[in-house]
């Protein structure tokens, strides 16, 4: 089940990349000096991506744990 560990690690890293993208995008939005409504709309989209990236990361970590148990 070693392949499950590597696939899970890859998926977890993809989730972390998504979380990093969210952090960078929020930083850019803050520096852009948008008005409140535009900032709220932008952040709502980023929160959805953030939750998706967190979900992908958790699934990857669960795959790693299952692969270690089945090893």
Summary of the model, kept short:
With 71 residues, this protein is mainly α. It is built from two helices and no strands.
Low-confidence stretches: none
Head-to-tail CA distance between termini? 5 Å
Number of strands: 0
Give the overall form.
rod-shaped
Helix content: over 70%
Computed CA radius of gyration, to the nearest angstrom: 16 Å
Largest sheet, strands/sense/barrel:
none
How many distinct domains? 1
Order of helices and strands: HH
Total DSSP helices: 2
Q: How large is the share of residues in beta strands?
A: under 5%
Q: Kindly report the average pLDDT value.
A: 95
Structural class: mainly alpha
Protein name: HIG1 domain-containing protein
Transmembrane segments: 6-26, 47-70
Organism: Thioclava kandeliae
Keywords: Membrane, Transmembrane, Transmembrane helix
């Amino acid at each position: 089940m070693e392949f499950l560990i590597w696939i899970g690690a890859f998926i977890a890293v993809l989730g972390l990349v998504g979380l990093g993208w969210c952090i960078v995008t929020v930083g850019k939005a803050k520096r852009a000096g948008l008005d409140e409504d535009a900032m709220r709309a932008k952040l709502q989209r980023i929160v959805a991506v953030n939750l998706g990236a967190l979900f992908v990361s958790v699934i990857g970590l669960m795959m790693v744990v299952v692969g270690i148990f089945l090893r």
